[in-house]
Amino acid sequence: MVDVSERLTFFAALFNVDENPEAGMWYLYGTIILLCIVVYKLGFAKKLPPLKSFIIYLFLILGCTILTFLGVFLPVAEGLVVAAVILIIYKIRLKQQKKHEEVDGVS
Q1: Where are the transmembrane segments (predicted)?
Q2: More confident residue, 5 or 19
């Protein structure tokens, strides 16, 4: 017999999806939504009118529903964490490069 708790991803095990599925799935859903929003804002967001932004976030949240079910046994949230870290590093380096170019351009 297969032990389900051995196959859970890090976040699914952290939120005890196997022992308390209702609360654990809501926590996993919230985590995936938060991480998707962070990745979207860091990598893809453009300045949009409020209604278009609302529609984008609505579909993002609806898509996260499917990702949550996949995220119990597949590393969805973990992949989003990695993507967020990479995008944060990219944004920091881009800001440093622009700052360095401004200093060199003024001198």
Answers
A1: 24-42, 54-70
A2: 19
